[in-house]
Amino acid sequence: TGCPKLSGMGVRNFRNNQGESDDIIDIGVGSGAFLKEIKTFGSISGIDTSENAIKICNNVFNGMFKVSEANSLPFENDCFDVIISFSVFHYFPSLDYAENVVKEMIRVLRNNGSILIADINDSEKKEEYYSIRTSENINQNHKVKNISPAHMFYHKSFFENIALSMGLNINIVDNVDLDIPFYTQSNYRYSAIMKL
Question: How far is CA 46 from CA 107, 110, 124, in A?
Answer without folding.
Answer: 16, 16, 30
